[in-house]
Write a structure and sequence with these properties.
The complex is a heterodimer of chains A (119) and B (113). With 119 residues, chain A is mostly beta strands. Chain A contains no helices and 11 strands. Chain A has strands at residues 5-7, 10-13, 19-24, 31-37, 44-50, 53-57, 65-68, 75-79, 88-95, 109-110, 114-118. The chains are: A mainly beta (119), B mainly beta (113).
Chain lengths: 119, 113
């Protein structure tokens, strides 16, 4: 499978619990993105990595959210002390970009998403 | 003002007709524009991108860009029921912290047989 893989696909949790999502990007892609999407809305940017470096983090990402990409390959997104407002689809995407091919960095391939429901 | 704006729809078109979707954006300096299609319950998939003013055609899809008016559109010719989906416009918005791909809210398209 050469696509972007996300796990778990669905997660139901109680308010206050911690959850972690994993994303495995396309192997040759150096950039990895996390977006959040709620029903009827477009995806909202959360954060992105180039290799293992987290280069940008949205103000949407409160202190309860943390993302890592320790070896520049897979990434995890952890939400601590979940709230009902965290219920959403969490989308991971990857791309390949260099200073000499900037346009390629903008062509994102999305995973199937991880749907979180907080009760 | 939202950074990327689209009519939410639904846009209802008869099979075989042309569907016309519009998108406006706030960053006058944006250079890269994308259209993604998202079926219900699925993740977005790229249809096409456009960087230069004018038209770009790919099969039944045509993207049109007018940077002076900060406007990008997507035409779907010979619409098919399988084209029924939400179409997301995405624009690279320049920020002090770095450029990021910013999505509009999407336009839902319904193609009726």
């Amino acid at each position: 499978d050469t696509g972007v893989s996300q796990n778990p696909r669905h997660k139901i949790t109680k308010r206050g619990q911690n959850v972690t999502f994993r994303c495995d990007p396309i192997s040759e892609h150096n950039r990895l993105y996390w977006y959040r999407q709620t029903l009827g809305q477009g995806p909202e940017f959360l954060t992105y990595f180039q290799n293992e470096a987290q280069l940008e983090k949205s103000r949407l990402l409160s202190d309860r959210f943390s993302a890592e990409r320790p070896k520049g390959s897979f990434s995890t997104l952890e939400i601590q002390r979940t709230e009902q407002g965290d219920s959403a689809m969490y989308l991971c995407a990857s791309s390949f970009g260099t200073a000499t091919i900037p346009s390629g960095a903008n062509v994102l391939t999305f995973g199937a998403g991880s749907r979180l429901t907080v009760l | 003002q939202k950074e990327v704006e689209q009519n939410s729809g639904p846009l209802s078109v008869p099979e075989g007709a042309i569907a016309s979707l519009n998108c406006t954006y706030s960053d006058r300096g944006s250079q890269s524009f994308f259209w993604y299609r998202q079926y219900s319950g699925k993740s977005p998939e790229l249809i096409m991108f456009i960087y230069s003013n004018g038209d770009k055609e790919d099969g039944r899809f045509t993207a049109q860009l007018n940077k002076a008016s900060q406007y990008v559109s997507l035409l779907i010719r010979d619409s098919q029921p399988s084209d029924s989906a939400t179409y997301l416009c995405a624009v690279i918005i320049r920020k002090a912290a770095g450029n990021k791909l910013t999505f509009g809210g999407g336009t839902r398209v319904l193609v009726k047989p």
